[in-house]
Amino acid sequence: MSIEVRGLCKHYNGFKAVHNVSAKLETGSLTALLGPSGSGKSTLLRMIAGLEVPDSGEIHLTGREATFASAKERNVGFVFQHYALFKHMTVFENIAFGLRVRKQGERGIQDRVFELLKLIQLTGYEKRYPSQLSGGQRQRVAVARALAPRPEVLLLDEPFGALDAKVREELREWILRLHEETNMTTLFVTHDQQEAMEVAGRILIMNHGEIEQDGTPIEIFDQPATHFIAQFVGESNFIDTEVSEKGLAVWGPFRFSVAPSLPVGKKIRIYFRPNDVYMTAQFETLQVRARIAKTRFKGTTIEYKLDIGEDKYISAQIPKGVALASGFKEGGEVYAAITAFHVFPIDAEG
Amino acid sequence: MGMKFKSTGILPGFGLTMGFTLAYLSLIVLIPLAALILKSTTLTWAQFVQEVTSPRVMASYKLTFGASLVGALINSVFGVIVAWVLVRYEFPGKKLVDAMVDLPFALPTAVAGITLTALYAPTGWIGRLLEPLGIPVAYTPLGVVVALTFIGLPFVVRTLQPVLESLDPEMEKAAVSLGAGRWYTVTRVILPTLAPAWITGSSLAFARAVGEYGSVVFIAGNMPMKTEITPLLIITKLEQYDYAGATSIGVVMLVISFTLLLAINWLQSRTGVHRIH
Amino acid sequence: MEMAPRVDEVKTYPVLDPARALTEPRWVRWVLIAVALSFIALFLLVPLAQVFASALDKGMGYYFNAVREPAALSAVKLTLVAAFFSVVFNSAFGLASAWAITKFRFPGKSLLITLIDLPFTVSPVVSGLIYVLLFGLQGLLGPWLKAHNLHIIFALPGIVLATVFVTFPFISRELIPLMQEQGSEEEEAAMVLGAGGRQIFWKVTLPNIQWGLLYGVILCNARAMGEFGAVSVVSGHIRGLTNTLPLHVEILYNEYDFTAAFAVASLLTFLAVLTLIAKTLVGLKYEKSRQTPAAQAESGIA
């Protein structure tokens, strides 16, 4: 089932939770809705599920208009952040709920539930109650419950938010495999960019109720479309400076080529990632001289605070092995160049 | 389905439940209360004022409000001690005592009324101890105070208990680490934290006592101008077919109840103190 | 060269025992416990003892006669009827109002909740007065009722109405905070899975609120059976016909038959003690069901 939304709006008492959002998700895709708290992503998901009614705009599911259809009619599966398992029912009854409601035969229900228990690797747990399960187990039951009535779309609202890091990782893997097996159109909401990058084939980044970028993880990472995305996704430095002549901006010893269309004197912000700073012990090419002011050990990488003179600093990050081989030390002299950066005019920021 | 209700939420049943709620509320509460207000408008303002400020009525206000206040104060003093002891100390039978605190809620007011009267009458178990000391209790305002104290007992205790239970022990340890002694910690750190719940509980006890009838009417003596409480005065006027009088005083009591309700709600919303059961 | 100070020259600071400062000295504790227990004994235990002592004053035979006397039995019946209707009607109201208030958004919610609370603060006498003013002979609907030969005041319907009024908010006030705490996620989940309104209510909501509902019913019932002031106003006090148990106690007392009065009162006292026991037991289960979904999500085995 494909999902298409056009111009969706939802506000609460004047606060715009979702503003003019349009997107199209193809059948079988695995998409993430990524954004900080309050960006409107959960509201958008709930509108698609039928748990909220939009104030304006349209929702189409597999080409059919579904804007005001009830949640039942939409045939979607929804997984809540806090699982929302029925406390007073066993695992079996929880998973069977959607089937019992549709008055399916007992035999069919049994088969389907056990099939799903196998899928979520909880065979043997059917008589347990939610309070007897761990967080990760509960979430898997929640997914099975949503899948039982064979929905055409699976929607997950921060499904792993309430779990700890290790369990989150395992479940991420699991969702990926599940999607490969079922090939169901899946849309999940998260505020964890690593999760979005690792799991989804496509990411919709939301901020202040609007979609700021729609692309693959690599596109988002390498070509952020706005200020917000540049500093929200991955780590970045940013520099505030002005266009000094046509097509050029200068900051300390660095010279950046910028779009010729930007007027001279225009204030701009330049983002670049610490990983995109090329550091060497000897001068190679187009580099600037710098002194290592501080080093920080970050596990698999080492971060350096570089003093480039004129009281200006940038941070660079390189893999530990390379750093050790190059012999960089605090106080030492190095040569650095910025190999990738993005420029945004400052008044374009929201 | 109702598109006009779309902004209320997507779960079903709003129309049905809201309709029933409003209908039932109107039938049982609002319309009868409106009848009271309506009936009172058959009097002119001057007549109304005369009814509610006549000497006998004023004397009943004095007794009702005065005794309720004293009862609430007694309960606020002993209530905090009982709550403290129940939350912080261990002793045999504590659970039993805890359950018993709700007795004034559960016991019918008439039973409380005749029992307290029997106890504090000159021939009663307690009355005969106090009589020789020159402290008559039954059939005096003091008896009214005793009854109203009984009635309000659970309010302060039950409002304070959850607050005491959820007090952060770290707070006391911090005070100690800063050099505070026990008395200082209790009076300057803990008690002020309890103040909102304390006031709320005492207000609830007061509000309950003001309207109380059954537990008071036996021990009071009911002598006009001396030991007559306002609710009794309403009944007396009804029995004498003085509807105007009964209605007027009823309106006064209703207005006071409503004001107290609003004040207590405001207190609770400001301080986040929960209702007791 | 400086020498290290000798051991006996080293100054020591007075030891502050943190355990001592974290609780009251022992004697203070015992005094407070004594004061608290004396207060409780004086105001609660002694009256309880008094009821039973006076009831048995003239022996068991007299006691049973008083309790089995026809007027007493019809008072029991009337009390049970009034309590039954109060519990049933106010439970229906409690469930409906809690559903409307906690599952939906609409303006005027706090006004509605305040109005629901109103009977809780109104004096019982005023609670009875309003029905007399509405349905009594001189009341707004008096003439109409008389024309149709309908009796509300001084008859069963009036007593039931007054009892319903004074117990009006009990169940609603328990369910509203409970359902607010529990949230609507389970209901939403059921809805997406295809359940209709009735199914959601019976299969999902009701099991979650059962202890709160039972708790409210216990409180409602206790108050309904014990109500005195309101019923006194609407009753007419016709022995054997329009007297509930509390009114019957009053009649016996006013006739100076103290022992019989206390005998009947002891029935109500048994009821009160039973209520306290039920309340405590159900209360424990109730507390457990009050976790918010987020707290529940984090609890459970690791």
What do these coordinates show?
The complex is a heterotrimer of chains A (350), B (277) and C (302). Chain A has helices spanning 41-49, 71-74, 91-101, 106-119, 135-147, 165-182, 193-199, 217-222, 227-232, 320-326, and strands spanning 3-12, 15-25, 30-34, 56-61, 64-65, 76-79, 153-157, 185-190, 202-207, 210-215, 237-245, 248-251, 254-257, 267-272, 277-280, 288-297, 301-307, 313-319, 333-338, 342-345. With 350 residues, chain A is of the alpha+beta class. Chain A has two domains: 3-232, Rossmann fold (3-Layer(aba) Sandwich), CATH 3.40.50.300; 237-348, RNA polymerase II/Efflux pump adaptor protein, barrel-sandwich hybrid domain (OB fold (Dihydrolipoamide Acetyltransferase, E2P)), CATH 2.40.50. In chain A, the strands form four sheets. Chain A has a six-stranded mixed β-sheet, with helices on both faces. A five-stranded antiparallel β-sheet of chain A has the order 13-12-11-14-20. A five-stranded antiparallel β-sheet of chain A has the order 15-19-16-17-18. In chain A, helix 3 (91-101) packs across helix 4, helix 3 runs parallel beside helix 5 (135-147) and helix 4 (106-119) crosses helix 5. In chain B, 72% of the residues lie in helices and 0% in strands. Chain B has twelve helices and no strands. In chain B, 48% of the residues are buried. Helix content of chain C is 75%, strand content 0%. Chain C is mostly helical. Chain C is flat, with a radius of gyration of 28 Å. Chains in contact: A-B, A-C, B-C. At the B-C interface, helix 1, helix 3, helix 4, helix 5 and helix 6 of B face helix 1, helix 2, helix 4, helix 5 and helix 6 of C.
